[in-house]
């Protein structure tokens, strides 16, 4: 009975959280040709994406914490494997955030260089 309850709790908790990976920002403005308004719109899109990713990261942290609680007592190897899987998922999302931010910054530097010439 305990196992069935734990499984039901785990399924319910995961369904309740249902962390959706945010859609990546579409085309960033080309800093060599973009207008000021284009760059501002690009900045807002990137900021929104980064905020959505922060919410996603918080969600998967909460989801993982609930999943670990629902598992109850498990051996150290299972804990280690679970932590490694979570760390990879979390770090991949952070790397994606950094990539998008850097891609925008490259275009911003190009825009500023164009503007200063």
Please render the helix and strand layout as text:
Blueprint (H helix, E strand, L loop, with lengths): L1 H16 L18 H36 L4 H40 L2
Question: How would you describe what is shown here?
Answer:
The structure is a single chain. By secondary structure, the protein is mainly alpha-helical. Helix content is about 80%, strand content about 0%. It has 3 helices and no strands. Helix 1 runs antiparallel to helix 2 and helix 2 packs antiparallel against helix 3. It is elongated, with a radius of gyration of 20 Å. The termini are far apart. About 5% of the residues have low confidence.
The mean pLDDT is: 89
Kindly state the number of beta strands.
0
- What is the H/E string? HHH
Helix fraction bin: over 70%
- The global form is elongated
Question: What are the low-pLDDT stretches, counting only 5+ consecutive residues below 50?
Answer: 4-10
Tell me the distance between the termini. Answer: 73 Å
DSSP strand content: under 5%
Jot down its keywords:
single chain; mainly alpha; elongated
What is this entry, summarized?
The protein has 117 residues and is mainly α.
């Amino acid at each position: 009975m305990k196992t069935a309850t734990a499984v039901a709790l785990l399924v319910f908790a995961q369904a309740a959280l249902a962390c959706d990976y945010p859609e990546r920002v579409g085309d960033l403005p080309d800093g060599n040709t973009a207008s000021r308004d284009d760059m501002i719109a690009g900045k807002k899109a990137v900021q929104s994406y980064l905020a959505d990713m922060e919410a996603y990261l918080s969600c998967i942290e909460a989801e993982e914490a609930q999943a670990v609680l629902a598992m109850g007592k498990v051996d150290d190897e299972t804990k280690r494997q679970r932590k490694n899987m979570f760390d990879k998922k979390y770090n991949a999302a952070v790397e994606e955030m950094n990539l998008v931010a850097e891609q925008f910054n490259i275009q911003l530097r190009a825009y500023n260089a164009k503007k200063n010439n």
